[in-house]
Amino acid sequence: MSNKLLELLTPQNSQIIFINQQPQMAFCVQSIDRQTLKNNVVGLAKAAKTFGIPTTITAVETAAFSGNTFPELLSVFPDNDTLERTSMNSWDDQNVRDALAEHAKNGRKKIVVSGLWTKVCNLSFALSAMHDTDYEIYMVADASGGTTLEAHQYAMDRMVQAGVIPVTWQQVLLEWQCDWANKDTYDAVMDIVREHSGAYGMGVDYAYTMVHKAPARAMARGSIGPNPALKTG
Predict the structure, then answer these.
(1) Cβ of 95: how many Cβ atoms within 10 Å?
(2) For residue 100, what is the DSSP state?
(3) Of 196, 187, 179, 176, nearest in space to 52 by CA
(4) How do residues 124-141 score in pLDDT, each as one tens digit?
(5) In angstroms, what is the C-alpha Rg of the chain?
(6) What span, in angstroms and rounded, lies between the C-alpha atoms of 33 and 104?
(7) C-alpha span between 48 and 112 (Å, rounded)
(8) Cβ contact 45:18 at 8 Å
(9) DSSP assignment of 147-161, as one string?
(10) Does residue 1 surpass a pLDDT of 60?
């Protein structure tokens, strides 16, 4: 393994691309629960926003077939354009190539990828980009999806055999954070964790409120009871 693949992801060496995160593409996903998929995509997007990661959003046949990119994703990046394509392979579109190259000029050659579907659009992009450039591809397995579990897994296997690095969205988030002493991003990371990281987020809420006595993020209007019922008979 070359030394460059031993380097951790950092906010300075990374960029990210979201490919075809659109409803028609998501309808057929069977490799992951679709609501979980969207949760992970948005969590990853918020992580990229928090760490200032240059972000490319591309979509295929929005008006003719696939529908609009998830609004929850677009709302994280209100100033980003969406790069529209006809090709299943994002690498075939010059606007996509140019966007990635612009960020790569600053040393951001580690490209984090989240897309639909794994077996087609993710795979073709990853293999083509690696064939033509020295980019390193980090495929976010749980922020991507396939039409079957086998389709997703075999595509991941094929990409890994070619040198793609498999990751999860939370792995990327925490690798960018790296050190809890990085206070500039600490609070935002904790917010992402609490909102998108399931049991981990529940644990953070519990620790904040019950151990560290921080105020709860939300409270009921009031508290009634307990009021033991009177015993009868």
Answers:
(1) 14
(2) H
(3) 176
(4) 999 999 999 999 999 999
(5) 20
(6) 33
(7) 10
(8) yes
(9) SSHHHHHHHHHHHHH
(10) no
Q: Are 76 and 27 in contact (CB under 8 A)?
A: no
CA 140/CA 44 separation, integer angstroms = 9
What residue has token string 């990751």? 167
Neighbour count for residue 3 (Cβ, 10 Å): 6
Predicted confidence at residue 2, as pLDDT, reads 57
The DSSP letter of residue 210 is I
pTM of the model: 0.94
Paired tokens of 107: 């040393």
pLDDT for the residue numbered 148? 98
Please provide the DSSP assignment of 9-42 as one string: P-TTTEEEEEE---HHHHHT--SS-HHHHHHHHH
- Residue 226, preceding peptide bond in cis (omega within 30° of 0): yes
SS3 163: coil
Amino acid at 205: D
